[in-house]
Write a structure and sequence with these properties.
The chain contains two helices and 13 strands; from the N terminus they run ααβββββββββββββ. By secondary structure, it is of the alpha+beta class. Among the domains are: 63 residues, SH3 Domains (SH3 type barrels), CATH 2.30.30.40; 56 residues, SH3 type barrels, CATH 2.30.30.40. The longest helix has 20 residues. The termini are far apart.
Length: 179
């Protein structure tokens, strides 16, 4: 027969184990990164010229060079000094960690101009347009809408209309800087 204190400790351990099992192995794996930030997560290019490499190291060949400052990228894997990223067109390559920023940006990849609205609701006044292929900074995300800034103009757009929009992927215990 267990003493009351030992029984309470065992019950607490059992509850913790059950809670951790409920989180799932995939969620736990997302959190185990060199940077401490979750993977996948969105980042943006710091520079207007960044080499995309075949592997994590300068000895790997350059596949192409991105020439768009603030281009949104999705980190899909990482090493200590390198990030494996996916661009809005689906290209995957490695970049040096110091070439990406936690600031959030988005890209209009769909054809046609996207109206930016004064308020986050359908039918709101149009304040500007984001053309296809344009990059904008994501200032805020709220209830399916992204507040964007491009060319000095600010407005709201449905997050599904831009690549890179939406909330930052989360991971319990990991704080992701606001972008």
């Amino acid at each position: 027969m267990l003493k009351p204190r030992a029984a309470a400790v065992l019950a607490a351990l059992a509850a913790l184990a059950l809670a951790l099992a409920g989180c799932g192995e995939a969620q736990a794996t997302r959190c185990k990164t060199k940077s401490g930030f979750p993977v996948p997560r969105f980042v943006s290019l710091k520079s207007g010229e960044v080499n995309a490499r075949n592997g994590p190291g300068e000895d790997h060949r350059i596949l192409w060079t991105w020439r768009v400052k603030n281009l949104p990228l999705l980190v899909v894997a990482e090493s200590r000094e390198w990030r494996k990223v996916r661009d809005p067109q689906g290209g995957t390559a490695w970049v040096k960690a110091q070439m990406v920023d936690t600031a959030r940006s988005v890209m209009r990849v769909k054809p046609g101009e996207l109206p930016l609205l004064a308020e986050p609701k359908p039918g709101a006044k149009v304040v500007a347009y984001l053309r296809s292929g344009a990059v904008a900074l994501q200032l805020k995300n709220a209830k399916g809408w992204s507040r964007l800034q491009a060319g000095g103009e600010k407005g709201w757009a449905p997050e599904g209309e831009v690549w890179g929009g939406g909330p930052e992927p989360g991971c319990e215990g990991v704080k992701v800087p606001a972008g």
